[in-house]
Write a structure and sequence with these properties.
single chain; mainly beta; rod-shaped
Length: 169
């Protein structure tokens, strides 16, 4: 904080809604870790009073909006398909208006790609005679706040083929 009078000290009170971590104190700046306690934004309103030479100045109010951190869920978080099958992983969050972006690592599978949306729907094909995987790393974001990435893994089984050879007698 700054003041036009040298030696000014600052003290503050706080009211908070859907926020934890805010507390009244004094000093030259407010450094507190604020956490949203709900799935909607909260507010911490600080009323800061300057004091110099035993005289209190006019208080100012600073309001801090605290957005919740989104938590993602992938349903299902693992799935097994036959080659050429279509994945179907629904993405949801505890915070409204969450968006989801994902990257993917694939092994012995083609058709998986990075994208965004609320459902991972991709046609996946096994590229060898053994099962492959597509592992999606999904990042939730809401109100410019990113949550913790989660993973969903799709196993893709190859489709068997048959051949016939004439039986000589």
């Amino acid at each position: 904080f700054r003041s036009n009078v040298a030696g000014t000290t600052f003290a503050w009170t706080v009211s908070q809604t859907n926020v934890s971590g805010a507390s009244a104190s004094s000093g030259s700046n407010i450094t507190q870790t604020l956490t949203a306690t709900s799935t909607s934004a909260g507010t911490a309103s600080y009323t800061i009073t300057p004091t110099a030479n035993s005289c209190s100045g006019t208080p100012i109010t600073v309001a801090i909006t605290v957005n919740p951190i989104p938590s993602a869920t992938a349903t299902p978080n693992s799935q097994t398909l036959c080659s050429g099958g279509v994945s179907s992983v629904a993405l949801t969050s505890n915070v409204a208006s969450t968006t989801f972006a994902w990257t993917v690592t694939q092994s012995n599978v083609s058709g998986a790609s990075a994208s965004l949306g609320s459902n991972i729907t991709q046609t996946l094909t096994a590229t060898s005679t053994s099962a492959g995987t597509a592992t999606y790393s999904i990042m939730p974001t809401a109100n410019s706040c990113s949550g913790t990435a989660i993973t969903a893994t799709i196993t893709v089984n190859p489709t068997p083929s048959a051949t016939a050879t004439p039986n000589a007698q």
